[in-house]
Amino acid sequence: MTGSRLVDGKGAVFLAVLAAAAVLVPVLNLTMPEGSPLHVPTYLVSLLGKYLAYALLAVSLDLVWGYCGILSLGHGAFFALGGYAMGMYLMRQIGPRGVYGNPVLPDFMVFLNYKELPWYWHGFDIFPFAAVMVLVLPGLLSFVFGWLAFRSRVTGVYLSIITQAMTFALMLAFFRNDMGLGGNNGLTDFKDVLGFSVQAQGTRVALFVLTALALALGYLVARAMTVSAFGKVLVAIRDAESRTRFLGYRTEHFKVVAFTVSAAMAGVAGALYVPQVGIINPSEFAPANSIEAVIWVAVGGRGTLVGAALGAVLVNYAKTMLTGVLPDAWLFALGALFVLVTLFLPRGIVGTLIERLGSRRAKARLPGPAPDALAPELAEEGRGS
Amino acid sequence: MRRWLALLLALCCAALAVPAAAQSPADAAYGRLASDSYGDIEAGIAALATTGDPRAGAVLRALADGRLLYRADDRALAIRDGAALADARTGAALASADGFKPVRVNNRVRRAIDAATGTLNLVAPDPATRRAAAEAVFKARDAAALPALDAAIARETDAGLRRTLQEARAAALLARPGTPEIDRLGAVDALRERGDGDAMALLRGLAADPAQSVRDAAARAIAGIETRLAIVANVQNAWYGISLGSVLLLAAIGLAITFGVMGIINMAHGEMVMLGAYTTFLVQEGFRRSAPDLFDWSLPIAIPLAFLAAGAVGVLIERLVIRHLYGRPLETLLATWGISLILQQAVRSVFGPTNREVGAPSYMSGAFDLFGLSITWGRLWIVVFAMAVFVGLNLILKATSFGLKTRAVTQNRRMAAAMGIRTPWVDAMTFGLGSGIAGIAGVALSQIDNVSPNLGQGYIIDSFLVVVFGGVGNLWGTLVAALSLGVANKFLEPYAGAVLGKILLLVFIILFIQKRPRGLFALKGRAVES
């Protein structure tokens, strides 16, 4: 296949746009005067940063869904876990500046009469530890979950439903005050990150640039995985898992690796999201959030990585616009978008664009019309009977 | 009962026939009432209560209301009712009110009236009144009521009521200082027979009893009652579990068709339930406006309408969207999720975001007692309804030609088409059936949940878990899964709390799916791999 270069055409365009944004947005924000039409207000920088964090989540989801056929309805859980790890670090940074002025305990713990810090909060005052946890917590959960599920050959719909059950269970758990993670209020009122005020303009711009870098890095990691021999096996698993297994591949190992890498990536996205929006609470675990992330990927084009990122930014931009102008219309629009995309754009925006451009090379690289974990096996069954 | 009435009648006649000659106990009591002294009045009230005179109740009520008059010279008693005056002993109308003045009432007299009304009710003609009176005495542990209780026990013909009276007597005996040891032992026995929390509280009070034998008997009785109560609590929990399980069954059974049989990941299922609930609301609104007397009929009428409304929406969805997506189950998830958002927002736009009021018909409210279990009618009807829906759906799938075609199409679409079955029509009707069943579930759920645009969201995840846990494509699996999850939830709740119990169940299901990836009752054969 000719598509096995690390950075192909659409990837180059994507990275170029991302780089341009990472340079232009800070420059326009920091150098242009307030009133200038070219000025990018600071709130917009954070908003764009949020979109890019979502885009990273979408890329991570595309890695497992688009290339391995694992439709995870629980990726929001990994995103939120990364967010909570970051949120715990930010809470510890507040120190004695909280409302109750306790140097060790966050406000909500003082409020709930905690006498000392729960054991799992220790270490989160050290940034490198928290940063590792951002990767380890979602990674560990996804590894255990994936190892159990893939080894038992839970596939397709069943897998989707139990990933949904997982994020639902986590949501219920994090809503409990006994979890020691802020209950339904979550973690908020952050002050500093690495000694810089989270409210400061400079910090916000830096966070945006970091998010853009993380997205580029995440894209490259996912791309490197998918163009390698490893990625070819993933695609083979997606298209005909039993056949791949019969060819001698331990498909569950490939799936676990892809799933764990993807979850860690989602965790990073969550960690970058939290300081930019200033809060993390259990509603991030809501099953609806995970489904929405799936929609971003479907809209942009699954199995393209670039499309996933594009879909995340476009859908969220539309959400921001519509909820501002016509709050009632947003759900109609989102619902209609899901229906129309599945019916008329099964390959998503990027997939369809590539097809339209008419390049035979691109056509050969794209999966069939239904890159779906179940469809090939259905076809196999049809032939067999 | 009849004998008792005859006796009563005879007594009345006797009282009427010989008012003054032989002074009956009732007469003596009436005599003391017609007095100026509070002590006499109080004694008269107590005496009157034990006679069981049929007019005693009316006399005591009149006394309490200050409508009882007396004439000091001949000790006549009269009840004033508005302007009319009636003889208190006979009920015959009196012409003149000359010389009558009201019988005086103070707080002690009022208390005496209350106690007397209680004892009087012990011999009331209505068994329900007698039972309530006996229970009241039991709770009050009123030693003064002992003579009345003895009298009532002697007359009582209903075995169950006599037992209640004896329990009340036991409570009174234990409350009275100086009851002989043998009677106290008998009382302990009676209380053990009763075996509820009240009896246990009384028995606990015997821990300081002077007699060793009574203390031992009480301790044994308490242990016995505790075992019994534990059993009752477990049975009650099981009932709550079955009740929750049938709610889950109702919510999931439509999905067992659309998801289980057809393989469509129908995320709009919850919204079909919601549409059913809103149909109920509309039907009830109609009844409230035009025929409030027939309100009890609103649910039976809402059921077919909810089926039609949700079923029609289901057929529409199938024709417009889902038929393009067969063989791509994961994509049906996205499309139906979109549909669910649209339906939610549509309902929110039309009916508003707040809860709408759905009333309970008379037969759905109230509770009854069964061997110490408290069972609410609403829950009972929902259990019955869930089972009826389950049986009905099974019959449709197994015993009708439509069901046969449905099964044929889902098992082998091309073969079914080759046999001349119109598969698109069967698809649409099957999806409509599943959606219609969800709508019916909405009628039942409107009785126990808030009818709001988010109603369906609360059930969708549970429904999927029930269907997956039970085994896709198997209605019996759905039944077993729903009931076992419901019962497990209710038994976990006391130990783990509601939220943690739910989390534990979710984790259990996730692990269970690892062990049996196709659910409790997996389909066998080649279809398994699809």
UniProtKB/TrEMBL annotation, chain A:
Localization (cell): Cell membrane
GO cellular component: plasma membrane
Keywords, in A-Z order: Cell membrane, Membrane, Transmembrane, Transmembrane helix
Membrane topology recorded in Swiss-Prot or TrEMBL: Multi-pass membrane protein
Residue ranges of the TM segments: 12-32, 52-85, 126-150, 157-175, 205-235, 256-274, 294-317, 329-350
NCBIfam families, per the entry: urea_trans_UrtC (TIGR03408)
Protein name: Urea ABC transporter permease subunit UrtC
Organism of this sequence: Methylobacterium oryzihabitans
From TrEMBL, chain B:
Residue spans crossing the bilayer: 238-265, 297-317, 329-347, 380-404, 425-448, 460-483, 495-513
Cellular component terms per the entry's GO annotation: plasma membrane
Pfam family, one: BPD_transp_2
Signal peptide: 1-22
BP GO terms, sorted: amino acid transport
Key words of the record: Amino-acid transport, Cell membrane, Membrane, Signal, Transmembrane, Transmembrane helix, Transport
Domain of life: Bacteria
First-listed, main subcellular location of the protein, grouped into a coarse class: membrane
Subcellular localization: Cell membrane
GO molecular function: transmembrane transporter activity
Its membrane topology: Multi-pass membrane protein
Database matches in PANTHER family: ABC TRANSPORTER PERMEASE PROTEIN (PTHR11795:SF447), BRANCHED-CHAIN AMINO ACID TRANSPORT SYSTEM PERMEASE PROTEIN LIVH (PTHR11795)
Similarity comment: family membership: Belongs to the binding-protein-dependent transport system permease family. LivHM subfamily.
The name this protein goes by in its record: Urea ABC transporter permease subunit UrtB
